[in-house]
Amino acid sequence: MRRVALVTLVVDDYDEAIRFYTEALGFRLAEDESRPDGSRWVVVEPDAEARGTGLLLARAKGEDQRTRIGDQTGGRVGFFLHTDDFARDHARMTAAGVTFLEEPRHEPYGTVAVFQDLYGNRWDLLQSAG
Known about the structure:
This protein is an alpha+beta fold and about 130 residues long. It contains three helices and nine strands. The strands form two sheets. Strands 5, 6, 7, 8 and 9 form a five-stranded mixed beta sheet that branches. Strands 1-4-3-2 form a four-stranded mixed beta sheet, with helices on one face.
C-alpha cells in the first residue's frame, strides 16, 4: 500500500508550532529529535492511529523560506482536516483560539469551514456527508 506519509510545513519556531498543532488542533507529537546542524525533526499527526498524513514542521532557513511561512499555497486552502464530528471539533478549536475565516456551511459533500493556522495558512475543517 502506498500513501503520502508527510507534508512539510515551513514554520517560524518549532515550539510555538508544536503548541498550536497539539493544543489548538488536537494533533499528537509523533517525533521531536534534535539534528546535528541545530535543526529538529518534528512530526505532528492528526490522531493516535496515525491514519492521516503527518506534518513535518520545518523551521525556515534563510529569507526565501521565511517569506513562504503562512503562504505556502498562494492564499488557497492547502490543507484539509477531516473530522467525524464537525460540531465538536469546531467548538473545541474555537475555544482554543483558532481563527475561522467563515461560518460553517453545508455543501453537498459535507460540512466545512475555513480556518487559518498560527501562520496564516488556510485549512478546511471538513466532515464528509453521509
